[in-house]
Structures are given as structure tokens and as C-alpha cells.
Amino acid sequence: MMSDDKIIQPSLAVEIAGLKLKNPVMPASGTFGYGEEYSRYLDLNQLGAVVTKGMSLHPKAGNNVPRICETVSGMLNAIGLQNVGVDAFLEEKMPFLQRYDCPVIVNFFGNTQDEYGEVAARLDDVPGVAALEMNISCPNVKHGGIIFGTDPKAAFAAISLVRKRTSKPLIVKLTPNVTDIQVTARAAEDAGADALSLINTLTGMAVDVKTRKPRLANVIGGLSGPAIRPIAVRLVHQVVQAVQIPVIGIGGISRAMDALEFLIVGAKAVQVGTANFVDPNAMATIIRGLEEFCRDEGVADINDLIGSLEL
Amino acid sequence: MMSDDKIIQPSLAVEIAGLKLKNPVMPASGTFGYGEEYSRYLDLNQLGAVVTKGMSLHPKAGNNVPRICETVSGMLNAIGLQNVGVDAFLEEKMPFLQRYDCPVIVNFFGNTQDEYGEVAARLDDVPGVAALEMNISCPNVKHGGIIFGTDPKAAFAAISLVRKRTSKPLIVKLTPNVTDIQVTARAAEDAGADALSLINTLTGMAVDVKTRKPRLANVIGGLSGPAIRPIAVRLVHQVVQAVQIPVIGIGGISRAMDALEFLIVGAKAVQVGTANFVDPNAMATIIRGLEEFCRDEGVADINDLIGSLEL
Amino acid sequence: MNNIKTIVLSNQEISPGYFRMKILAPGYNKLASPGQFVMFRVQRSLPPLLRRPFGIFRMGFMPADCDNMPPKEFIELIYKVVGSGTEIMQGLHQGDPVELLGPLGQGFDLGEPDEEKILVGGGIGLVPLYMLAEKMVDNSNVSLLMGGRTRDDIITVTEFERLGVGTYVSTEDGSLGEEGLVTRVLERKLEKSPHATVFACGPMPMIAAVQKICLQYDTPLQVSLEALMACGVGACLGCVVKGAGHTDVDPHYLCTCTRGPVFKAEELDWDKDEMTVRTSGGCR
Amino acid sequence: MNNIKTIVLSNQEISPGYFRMKILAPGYNKLASPGQFVMFRVQRSLPPLLRRPFGIFRMGFMPADCDNMPPKEFIELIYKVVGSGTEIMQGLHQGDPVELLGPLGQGFDLGEPDEEKILVGGGIGLVPLYMLAEKMVDNSNVSLLMGGRTRDDIITVTEFERLGVGTYVSTEDGSLGEEGLVTRVLERKLEKSPHATVFACGPMPMIAAVQKICLQYDTPLQVSLEALMACGVGACLGCVVKGAGHTDVDPHYLCTCTRGPVFKAEELDWDKDEMTVRTSGGCR
Ligand SMILES: Cc1cc2nc3c(=O)[nH]c(=O)nc-3n(C[C@H](O)[C@H](O)[C@H](O)COP(=O)(O)OP(=O)(O)OC[C@H]3O[C@@H](n4cnc5c(N)ncnc54)[C@H](O)[C@@H]3O)c2cc1C
Ligand SMILES: Cc1cc2nc3c(=O)[nH]c(=O)nc-3n(C[C@H](O)[C@H](O)[C@H](O)COP(=O)(O)OP(=O)(O)OC[C@H]3O[C@@H](n4cnc5c(N)ncnc54)[C@H](O)[C@@H]3O)c2cc1C
Ligand SMILES: Cc1cc2nc3c(=O)[nH]c(=O)nc-3n(C[C@H](O)[C@H](O)[C@H](O)COP(=O)(O)O)c2cc1C
Ligand SMILES: Cc1cc2nc3c(=O)[nH]c(=O)nc-3n(C[C@H](O)[C@H](O)[C@H](O)COP(=O)(O)O)c2cc1C
Ligand code: FES
Ligand code: FES
């Protein structure tokens, strides 16, 4: 590049479902608490958005311990969606987040369609809630515990209902544990989702060979971390091709390079999960890394990178 | 343990579908060539069995390069099932294997039901072929390229046909890329499989962010190696609960400890894949490690460990 | 509370399988209180993926290199090699880069001055008790009951003695001090000093036994617990223990990393023996 | 061919980014021939998961430590730090445990004595040519054309000279030797010596250009190729290149690890420029 072409300050801003983000980097739900936990280590105003721990209608105590276990380049968790419940969230957690100049995306779930609808409704007119992220990797208690997200019909019905009860941008978070994610993705789009985020954790299990017990009290848990990245990149690639709505990429991102894989296959933004535990500063480093990469590669606007995969 | 209880030589022998194995350790198809490639580094007679590269009716040239790519604690491959074809295998490769005192399991696949049947038939009366392993992770060219293994009906039909054309023990190798592996597992059992092996690779993808090209010419490949072990253990656990026939566990095994996880959740044997590349001696070390573990834990017969998971 | 990139100052084996690591740690002397911990990361290495939690054994200042420089602050960890992470740690040398997140968690409540204090340490559980002793020894009568399986598990007792702490050692195999469990020593001690406060840290069976004894003598007890941790800051909710009043129908979980690692006995649910950390060894 | 657990004897930076590693390697002097390679593993570490392929630069014997001991056999690798694996390698010290699988693959065909031999090396591609020169220099006229981007990429040329090889150096930026591509030097050389045999190793664009030139002069050519490898022994089929006669309808692939890494030009398909190794940098 010629020196007068040099990009001094590449633009990292992206837009998702009408939501303007300073940059495409935000935490993944459940790995960043309610924002406050990490606010000592990281200026939340740097982030594209904050995504909260998953919220339900009623407080949820979560699973018995052990709840986590390290695996090769990853970890299993079976937290059991422990959360304070949507009302306590609004009262105790939201005011803190409202002090920041950073869009807040509230992740939520329910055990029935109606619970999903009810939580969405309670969040609908809350100032500072920029968007909702609907986690459909939750057992549908009305239908024998089958996960909403693995049954496109149940997903469609639940999303349609939520769609009616919220005017906020609705992001639907997909589970990777399906044969054909394009089917779920299209069902979510058809039901009115404004954006999709993926992946949630892959189900996994580990055994303590000495005690012959599962390493998690819940036996099965969700696998996250660098180990799953190739699977996540593949799924995002497939979903981007299946839908028109924007996609947020998640799974094993811990460096700018990792985030770039997702952006290049077509994700409009990314979420960083397990990497926050390893380095509370991970997202700030990733944002700086994206900026540097754009500068080095002569990319003036990160949107030019998004979907730039050459097949 | 009291010293006169001491187990001097634990028994590692297991039986799968009438097949007697010295020990439960064998290579995973496609990671051990036709046996000969590693015979310089490892005495094949030590192994529970040898499993060959996947064989098809006609020779197959495989995919364009790049075909492999390292990922975090794993690798992607899109070899494209390159193989010499069943006839050349019988003529050029099988005689070498017949010299060993080690059961030979021939992995095979087809692009149509009939191709599957035809390969099975050609292998049926070959002396030294101890069992067939049917890889159903192959695109069904008659039905728009959908993978046999992701469509329980297609799997059932193909397995039923193969069942009619072989009298050898039939192992069906399952793909993990499905919503509910218990459904495929039961379909395979119902169609007459004598045993199941799992998992084949998880589909994944990686991107070179500098060139913005996929790292594999085939774009998507199969993820293997330590990274996938927790997913494989979970799937084996689920399949063991769904069927009566024996199960062979595969996925990310590189140490005796890893193999034990699979045995404890109920696999009767294990296959070692990617680890052979890292250490040609891996299987021998694992066998020794299993023996040591049994000795240390006072297990006289490894069958007592199989399925000993405490929930 | 801070995340710092820093370096190892020294790392030495002090007893078979036990290592003592000194780390440059600006700010800690002001921030850290007894019973707090750090999340330790061997930089750039993977595995291990997650950080490992370690109590702070001691902190202080190193003599300055030259007159114009401020003295260097350090903390010391003492760790036992048990798995993949600690195996890598034992290979670290002076100057190697590491990261510290901390100081984290709620430490010990120092209680009233003049009151008698009994510290009960089991093996590596001794670690958080040293700084506690340092703080209390000036205005209280402090004693340390130290237990271990063999003499190899008895560490740094001399340093406690140098502080002026009365120490009692017991080992299960009798290879050092009295033969038997440290809890037997505690019972004898409480016979004589029923109004003491007890501070305990060690393996879960030991802590559970200490709790039973203290309940019996109606002695106040603070315990420092271990739990599997991913974040150390209250974000992952992986590290919970059952709080007092916990039932299966109405579960009540407390984060060990933010509400602990030190708890008053009455904050916890002692009914279940599942409260143990199911440790791993093998999550390579 | 063997898998040995051995140790590093020395590991030194010889030019910015280039390292030379001496490894204890019993048996290699008898087994290995010029152009063969090893699959190298940093023991116990993960990542990298897979072994890394490296050519053998040189082998030999170290003086025995004492009279009764046999002299120690070693091999030398020269590697460029380009990614995760080589980054770890550069941190290895004397005595560190490593594993070698090898010697592997088909090396160079030494050709007829007295025939003139031209070696063309691009940067790190020089590595397999040294042992080749050693073998040929006694009964042939051997010259080395060495190219690189900058003078930092010109390595070990003096050692070739010491063997009695005539050397020509060129760099793209002119910082050492002639300014320009090594292929220009080759053309000039072939003008004068049309009956030589050429042996080339270097980046793919260089090799492709060398092939064009040799075709033009009708000069026999052997090339040593790089390919992504998982096993190194013909088991994974990951490392193939397109063989002569390859078409999309009737593809024809050859394993670089067993049929190569050295190929005669006529064995390969030169139509496609896709024959490049798409290297990575980032598969952490
Ligand atoms: C608050 C706190 C303070 C601690 N202080 C000390 C100390 O001062 N000295 C010391 O030697 N140890 C201490 N531990 C235990 C120490 O964290 C573990 O021994 C260490 O994490 C083991 O790591 P590893 O990789 O060697 O073992 P692995 O078994 O390979 O570790 C696998 C996973 O399990 C976790 N894990 C394993 N054992 C424990 C354990 N006992 N407690 C918590 N997590 C565990 C690891 O952190 C890791 O995530 C403390 C634990 C906690 C929670
Ligand atoms: C037969 C043969 C001989 C070689 N001889 C030498 C030598 O003497 N000196 C030297 O410096 N290099 C040599 N190479 C290249 C060397 O293998 C790579 O530079 C090295 O593997 C890079 O590893 P990394 O982990 O640093 O890079 P990363 O990019 O992190 O590696 C990721 C993956 O890609 C593979 N890879 C990356 N670059 C190459 C490449 N150029 N060729 C093959 N695989 C690659 C790695 O092996 C690994 O599997 C040789 C390659 C082959 C095939
Ligand atoms: C401890 C933990 C808790 C999580 N909790 C939630 C949750 O409440 N809701 C949700 O949608 N996803 C949850 N997830 C999934 C993450 O948001 C993310 O999808 C997943 O971890 C993959 O990303 P990563 O590999 O970057 O961690 C959780 C993950 C972890 C590790
Ligand atoms: C290079 C490579 C080639 C493979 N080829 C085949 C094959 O031909 N047939 C088959 O059924 N599985 C094949 N597999 C899948 C393995 O047999 C095994 O199921 C998978 O790699 C998971 O095990 P691992 O993690 O131990 O490698 C291949 C795997 C690799 C890495
Ligand atoms: S360790 Fe994450 S909440 Fe305590
Ligand atoms: S590297 Fe495996 S076949 Fe060549």
C-alpha cells in the first residue's frame, strides 16, 4: 500500500438488527456474569455490547456440584442456568449496567413457551435493554424435556410467541447439537428473529476413571473453549448461507485471529466466552487485535472483511 | 489390597460380536493405512485388531489439497476417502495382513446402497477378514448427497442390504453429526448390525485469515483428536444405553486414561485414531497402560471395568 | 483486585512434591488480606486452559536493587503437584512470565483481640493460615495444629514457630510428631481452651471432622474451602457450595470465589458429605 | 526407520529467525540418505498436536566422552520460526527430551558421477541440499545457487564452500550477493552448462520457475517438496501432490511423505499452480 493510503483508524463499527455497535466484540452469555463481575478488569465501554447471564422468569438455583471440569483445550459446564430471575435482575443488576454507554443484550430462557414469552414481555419496555437474546438450548418441560432448539417446530412456535411480546431486536441463540442447523436457522428466521447467534455449547461428558464417576454431577455438560472452534466456524458458515438475517459467531474465540475466522465466513459480530475466564482482558485484546489486523491489511472498514471468504 | 490378592497379569481380552480380541485396543480406520505403514514401528500382533482404511468398490482418488489442517488440540481432514478399491486391497494389501495373528476388520463404504452391498459381498469369503466395519458417514449420491448416517431410514435400508450380503460380523460406524444418535444407533441395531463403533469425525472448518480462504480445499472437513473426546464419551454413553449390541468407542483417545473413560461408560473396545500420527507407538503404550491400571486398581478382568460407570 | 502480567522470582521444591514460588506482585501488600487467593496463569501455555486458584502464603518486599528504586513487592505461593497445571508450574524458572488475577475472595475474619486462636492445617491446607497467624499473633495467643499423611506433608512449621505460634504436629503414619489425625489433637486442645476460635483449612474430610468437633464444643469456626473454579470472580457460577438451609427442593448455593473461600461454619450446609471438591487428575 | 525418544544437544539462532538444532540420533548415519526427513515432536507438549516435518541438514558423530564409550551420533536440523510449533522449538535447550520419527521418505537420486550438478536453494529450502553436496562433491562438479529475500535468508553458504562447492548468492533486495531472483542465476548457469542435473528445494514459486527453466533447457530436475503432513509414513493420505497425468476427471495423487519429498520433475503435474502448500500460521 502507498503511504498516503495508510489506514490510521479503521472503523470497527457494525450494525445488527438496527443495533449500532462500536465494534463486533461482546461477551457470551454466562461467561461474564451480569457485567459487574468483570467491570474491575475491563472498561465495559470498550465493548461492542454486554450480554448477560441467561435470565428466567423465576430465580433458578442451578445444578449440584461439580459443575465444571477442564478438558483438553476446553471445559465442560453444567451450571444449570443458575440466575437471579428476571425481576431481581431488573432491580439489582440492570441499574449498574445502565450507567455504561454500552448496549445491553439480555439473554433469557424458559421451560415452556409461555415462560419465554413472559420473560420477554417483562424486558420489553426496560430502558437500556438494547436487545434480547433467546437461548433455545433449554429443555421443553411440556414436551418431555426435548430441547427447544433441537426441534424446529417447537423453536418456531416459541420464537413466534416471543416475537409478539417484544418490540426489541430479537436474537435467537442456536444449539449446535443438531443434524442440520440450517433447518433451525430458517425456522428462527421465519418465526421473526432479527438475528441469530451461535454456537451454544456442544454436549459432552468426562469420567473420573479412578472413582468411575462422571466429572459433573449432572453427568452431561456443555463443551466450550478453543477445542470447539472448528465446529463453530463450520456451523456459522452454514447458517450464514441459509438465512438473510445477521449472524453472531460464538465458540472458542480467544484471539483476534479466531474472531476473524468467524467474521470472514460472514458473522457480523462475535461473542467471547470461556476466554474471559482465562484472561479477563481477552475482549479488549481482541478488539485491539482486530484494529491492528485491519490496519496491517489495509481494511478501512471491518464490514469489508465480513463475509469475505474466498471459496 | 492384600499382597496375595495381587493381580499379576490382568486379563485384557474382550469379545465383540463373537470376535475374540486379545485386548480392546485397535486403530481407527484411515489413521493406520493398511497396517503395513506402521508395522515397522509397532508389532501388529500386539493389537486387539487392525482396522483398515475405508474401502470402496472402485478405487477413489480423494480430494484436492490441502487435505489436512491442525486445530487446537485436534486436526481437520478432508482426505476424501482415497483408497485403492476393494479388489486391489484384496490383492495387494490383504496378503500382508494375513501374515499376522491379529483379526483384520475391513472398513468400507459406498455412494449407493448397492455399492455398499457389493463391497460387503466381495469381502465375505475372504479368509483373515474377521469383521466388516461399515462407514455410514458417506454422502448418499442417490439421495442428493445427504449422508447415510444422518438419515436413519437410509441407514436402515443400507445396513439391511449389507446384512444380507455378508456372514461376517458387521460393525456399523456412526457419525456424531446428528441431533439424536440413539435413533441412528437403534436403526442400525434393528437392521442387523452386530456392533456399533463411534464416533466418526465431527464436521468442522478453519479459515486462513490472511488469504481469506478455507484451510481445506474441500472447505469442510472432519475434526478428530483430543479436542473431541468429551463429545465422543457423551455419545458412546448415550448409545450404550440405547442398544443391546456391543459398542466400540472412538474419539480423541491418546492415553490409557482416555481409553478407560470409554470402557467405563460401556464401550467394549476402543479405536485410536489421530494419536497414531503423533506417536506410532501410542496403541502399545495404551495397552500397557490399561494393564497397569487394572493391576493398580485390583481389576483381574478388564470386562469388570466395562460399563462400571457410577451414576 | 487486578490482573497483572508479572514474573517468577523463584520456584523451589521445599518437600517432596511441594513447591514454593515467589512472584513479583506490585500492590499486593496493600490489597491482600489473609485467606484471599489468586487465579494463577502460566502465560501463553495451553494446556492448561483455565487458571488455577492458589492461596497466598505470604507477601512482603524485596530489598531494592539500587537506592532510587522502590523495593519490589512479592507474594509467595506454596503448591502441591497434583495434575497437569501444577506439573507445568514446577518447571517454571526465575524470570518466566506468569499472570496473577487477584487478590480474590473473602478472607478470614480476624475476630477479637486477646481471644485464643487455634489454626488447624492439613497438608497444603496450611497455606492461607500463615498470613492469618502473622496478623493475629501480636494480640492473641495463636497455636497451629498441623497434620499430614507423612512427614513430607508437614511444611513451613518452623516459620510459624518463628512468628511465635505454638505448633503441634501430627502425621497419620507417625513419621513426624504425634501419630494420628490432627483432629485428635484439636479435641485435646479444645478440652483445655473451649473459648478459642478455630480456623481450618485442609482436605474436606478433615474440615468436616473439625466442624463436628467445634459444634460439639460450641466453638466458633471459620473454614477455607476449595472448589473447582473457572473464573474466580463470580461470573461462571462453577464454584458453588451448599449454603446453610440448602435443600434439594429449595437449593441454596454460594460462590466459593466471591462469598468464600473462607466461610463461617454457620454459613454452610454440613449435612451432605458431597460438599467435597471432586478433584480431577486427568483433565489433560 | 525408527521412532526414537532422544534429547537436544544444542539449539542456536544462526540468522534472525533461523535456528540450528543438534539432536542425539543413534543409527542415523547408517540409515539416512540426502533428501530424507524426520517427523519431529516436542515431547509431552500439546499444542502442537501433530509432529512437524524437517529435512536433515547434516549428520555426524560427536567425539566420545571417554575412551570406552562409542562416539555419539547426531543429526542437525535447521528451521525457520514460522508458527506455533517452531516457536516452541526455539525455546528448547540442551538436554530437553524430543522425539524423532525417521529417516523418512525418498531422498535424491545421486545421478551419474562426473556429471555436473547444480543445487538451487531458496531460503530454508537449502536444508536438504547439504548432505547431497557432501555425497556428490567427490566425483562431480557441484555448484550451489542460493537465493533469499534478504541477507538474513542466506544461511550456511560457507559450509558448502568448505566442501568445495562453488556458490552463487542472490537476494531479492540485493542485501547480499547479486540482486534478483535465484532463477536468473540458474538461467545464466544453464546457458554455460546445459548438461548438468538440477536439484532444487525452496518456496513453491521458485520451484515452479526452476521447472520451467529446466524444461526449456531440457535439463533433468529433481525437486524436494513441502506438504502438510500428519503421519509422515503414508497412513493418513494428507500430504499428496498431483502426479504426472493428473486430471480432474482422473485424478492422480502421490504421497509426499513416501513417494517424495524428492521427486523427479517428470513424476509431477506442473500444470496447476495450486501445487503450493497452503501454509498456515495460526493453527494454534
Ligand atoms: C481458593 C483455593 C485456594 C487454593 N490454594 C492452594 C494452595 O495454596 N496450594 C495448593 O497446592 N493448592 C491450592 N488449591 C488447590 C489448587 O487449586 C489445585 O491443586 C490445582 O488447581 C490443581 O491443578 P492441576 O492442574 O495441577 O490439577 P488437575 O487435576 O489437572 O486440574 C484440573 C482442574 O481441576 C481443578 N482442581 C484440581 N484440584 C483442585 C482443588 N483441590 N481445588 C480446586 N480446583 C482443583 C484445577 O484448577 C483444574 O481446573 C486451592 C484451591 C482453591 C479453590
Ligand atoms: C519434507 C519436509 C521437509 C521440511 N524441512 C524443513 C526444514 O528443514 N526447515 C524448516 O524450517 N522447515 C522445513 N519444512 C517446513 C516445516 O515443516 C514447517 O515450517 C513447520 O511444520 C511449521 O510448523 P509451525 O508449527 O511452526 O507452523 P504452523 O503454521 O503453526 O503449523 C501448522 C501446521 O501446518 C504445518 N505446516 C506449516 N508450514 C508448513 C510447511 N511449510 N510445510 C509443511 N507443513 C507445514 C505444520 O506442520 C502444522 O501441521 C519441511 C517440510 C516438509 C514437508
Ligand atoms: C460457564 C458457562 C455458562 C454459560 N451459561 C450460558 C447461559 O446462561 N446462556 C447461554 O445462552 N449460554 C451460556 N453459555 C454458553 C456460552 O454463552 C457460549 O455459547 C459457549 O460457551 C461457547 O463459547 P466459548 O467457546 O467462547 O465459551 C455458558 C457457557 C459457559 C462456559
Ligand atoms: C486422516 C483421517 C482419515 C480418516 N479416514 C477414515 C475412513 O476412511 N473411514 C472411517 O470410517 N473413518 C475415517 N476417519 C475417522 C477415524 O477413524 C476416527 O473415527 C476419528 O478420527 C476420531 O478418532 P480420533 O479422534 O482418535 O482420531 C479418518 C480420520 C482421519 C484423521
Ligand atoms: S469460579 Fe467462577 S463463579 Fe466462582
Ligand atoms: S503425511 Fe500422512 S500420508 Fe503422508
Give me some keywords for this one:
heterotetramer, A: 311 residues, alpha/beta, four-stranded antiparallel beta sheet, 8 helices, C: 284 residues, Elongation Factor Tu (Ef-tu), domain 3, Rossmann fold, seven-stranded antiparallel beta sheet, seven-stranded mixed beta sheet, 6 helices, binds flavin-adenine dinucleotide, binds flavin mononucleotide, binds FE2/S2 (inorganic) cluster, oxidoreductase activity (chains C, D), metal-binding (chains C, D), electron transport (chains C, D), flavin adenine dinucleotide binding (chains C, D), electron transfer activity (chains C, D)
User: Cα-atom Rg of chain C, whole angstroms?
Assistant: 19 Å
CATH-level-4 superfamily name of chain A: Aldolase class I
Low-confidence stretches of chain C: 274-284
What name goes with the CATH superfamily of the largest domain in chain C? Nucleotide-binding domain of ferredoxin-NADP reductase (FNR) module
- The main sheet of chain A orders its strands as 3-16-15-10-9-8-7-4
Mind describing the biggest β-sheet of chain C? Answer: 7 strands, antiparallel
Largest sheet of chain A: 8 strands, parallel
Biggest interface found? A-B, 46 and 46 residues
The CATH topology of the largest domain in chain C is Rossmann fold
